[in-house]
Design goal:
The chain is of the alpha/beta class. The chain has a single domain, classed as Flavodoxin domain (Rossmann fold). It is 39% helix and 15% strand. It is built from 6 helices and 5 strands; from the N terminus they run βαβαβαβαβαα. The protein has a 5-stranded parallel beta sheet, with helices on both faces. β1, α1 and β2 form a beta-alpha-beta unit. It is globular, with a radius of gyration of 16 Å. The structure holds ligand FNR. The site of ligand FNR has 15 residues, from α1. It comes from Kaistella jeonii. GO terms for molecular function: FMN binding; oxidoreductase activity.
Length: 181
């Protein structure tokens, strides 16, 4: 069965490693998964004062999430936790409480870093934040993608064979997870 997956990238950087890995996850996913990066860079800061008449960007973002069957977070670690821009997008999608766009969407997390630890702190904090959003999160396999500079080939787009295998297996497991809901 075909499933739509909203991919949220937690970095706004043009040459983001996370975006590159997200694109590889899209390329290597089972063919029945239709993955699409949902952009967060134009959302602005969440503010309760304006949620009753939200900006168009918020409404569009919420609709993209609502119209997806699942969500995939691909994020760097900032100061051992998740980037503010990602948390901000989580807030915007979650409000108002009766219109939590994330509710019940099966999810998965990959953290990507040049460091060997692979964004473990951010990975677990995203998991933590997702509890309140009511996202049933795949637990295993976990994806702490460390040493990312050594994983990319000379084209700076494609990952090496070992990483390709890892990502392929991760996406197969995620597809199975999604089908359970
Ligand atoms: C970082 N970086 C970083 N890396 C890490 O593994 N753990 C960390 O706690 C941090 N902290 C941190 C804070 C801030 C403010 C910045 C800007 C960076 C390094 C980070 O992993 C690196 O810049 C990545 O390349 C960011 O991901 P993208 O933008 O390449 O996807």
């Amino acid at each position: 069965e075909n499933k739509k997956v909203a991919v949220i990238v937690g970095s706004l950087r043009k040459e983001s490693f996370n975006r590159k890995i997200a694109n590889e996850m899209i390329r290597l996913a089972p063919k029945n998964l239709q993955l699409k990066i949902v952009e967060i860079k134009d959302l602005g800061f969440f503010n309760e004062d304006i949620e009753k008449s939200p900006p168009q960007e918020w409404t569009d973002f919420k609709n993209e999430i609502k119209n997806s069957d699942a969500v995939l977070f691909v994020s760097p670690e900032y100061n051992r936790t998740l980037p503010g821009v990602l948390k901000n997008a989580m807030e915007i999608g979650s409000r108002p409480p009766k219109e939590n766009s994330w509710k019940g969407k099966p999810g998965a997390i990959a953290t990507v870093s040049p460091s060997a630890i692979g964004g473990l702190g951010a990975n677990h904090n995203i998991r933590d934040a997702a509890m309140s959003l009511d996202i049933p999160m795949m637990q295993q396999p976990a994806a702490y993608i460390g040493g990312v500079k050594d994983r990319l080939l000379e084209d700076a787009i494609t990952v090496n064979e070992a990483t390709e295998k890892f990502i392929t297996d991760f996406m197969i497991a995620f597809e199975k997870w999604i089908q359970r809901f």
